[in-house]
Design a protein that fits this description.
Blueprint lengths: L2 H22 L2 E3 L4 E3 L5 E6 L18 H13 L6 E6 L9 H11 L2 E3 L1 E2 L13 H4 L2 H14 L10 E5 L8 H17 L3 E4 L6 H11 L6 E4 L7 H10 L2 E4 L7 H12 L6 E3 L20 H12 L4 H15 L11
Length: 338
């Protein structure tokens, strides 16, 4: 073997080893720790334990009691053991009831790996945005969100596992909502955290993906939240082709519409871009009596229905394990600019 041949072999081994090492370093961040991605665990990728709709100007954690919340929600979480759920993504953002200490207590009690988030929620005409957002730049917000990832949230060691933002659905985003999307893009490029955006119909999706492209972030780093509200199936095909994650996350409240959309995804070869969850729960501290929606409809209603219509266990595993583990894996995904 010549020296040149040895160099070629060394070069290719370096590439192969580097790719394998990079892949093995993809992690998931829950409220307890970061750990290596494993694609064979069951996920609930969009749920809520606590939500307080009082608004950013009035919200205070002193308004709720951890013991009371845990007493109310733990029965609904404990039953998830029967369905072998490992990951529970809590999508409640800051200023809407995000309480990472509560989530850590619940994770310890139940054994669930709970993900929390950084970011801010712009929907409902900025009701849940703190005043400082008006004077902050996208870069300022990104620094705050990145710091939560590097140093922990609210003076704890608990770190976010993804970025949660939201918009008022429109073809043209408001200035503040453009700022949120830009900040999320910048935070992704610093941290590798996936962006989950409360969006709804597709008309609000395209301007967000345009901003991400301008900032150099791939659609593969973006979850289109509440996509079940879209009525034009062509939008799903377009979003999937771009690489966007399509989250059908209203299964705590509705079934048949989701079934049809999942079967459409299967028949059109885009099942590998679909996430499903309940958007269920939750404890509301503004209510004297709680009415918590269970987190089990996927297992008790959706799964049997899909099976009766030709869905295989392997396809269900793609939805519940393979896709969410990829979607929430922490890695910087640059835009291909193709």
């Amino acid at each position: 073997m010549t020296e040149r041949q040895k160099l070629y072999i060394l070069f290719f081994l370096t590439i192969i080893f580097g790719c394998a090492t990079s892949k093995s370093q993809v992690t998931i961040q829950d409220v307890n720790q970061a750990h290596q991605l494993t694609p064979n665990q069951i996920w609930l990728s969009h749920e809520h334990i606590l939500v307080d709709f009082i608004g950013a100007k009035k919200i205070q954690q002193a308004n709720w009691d951890h013991d009371a919340i845990m007493a109310a929600v733990l029965p609904y979480l404990e039953v998830l053991k029967d369905h072998h759920v490992t990951y529970f993504v809590d999508a409640t953002p800051n200023y809407l009831g995000r309480d990472v200490v509560l989530l850590e207590k619940i994770a310890t009690k139940t054994g669930l790996r709970i993900l929390t988030n950084t970011g801010l929620y712009g929907a409902q005409k900025d009701k849940f945005l703190p005043d400082y957002v008006k004077e902050s730049s996208a870069e300022d917000l990104a620094k705050k969100w990145t710091k939560e990832f590097t140093h922990g949230i609210d003076r704890t060691s608990i770190k976010p596992g993804f970025i949660k933002i939201s918009i008022d659905n429109s073809k043209t985003l408001s200035t503040s909502h453009q700022k949120l999307v830009e900040a999320a893009a910048l935070t992704h490029l610093k941290t590798g955290l996936t962006i989950a955006s409360h969006t709804g119909k597709a008309k609000g999706l395209w301007p967000q993906l345009k901003i991400l492209k301008e900032k150099g972030v791939s659609p593969e780093a973006f979850i289109w939240v509440h996509s079940q509200e879209e009525n034009n199936n062509d939008s799903y095909l377009k979003a999937a082709k771009m690489g966007c994650w399509i989250s059908l996350d209203g299964l705590g409240w509705e079934l048949e519409n989701h079934v049809e959309k999942i079967l459409f995804a299967k028949s059109n070869g885009i099942l590998d871009r679909i996430l499903i969850s309940h958007d269920a729960g939750w404890y509301d501290p503004q209510k004297e009596e709680q009415s918590i929606q269970p987190y089990t409809a996927i297992f008790e209603k959706l799964y049997p229905t899909l099976k009766s219509r030709g869905f295989t266990d392997e396809e269900f595993n793609v939805l519940m394990s393979v896709n969410p583990s990829k979607a929430f894996g922490i890695e910087i995904r640059n835009h291909p600019f193709d």
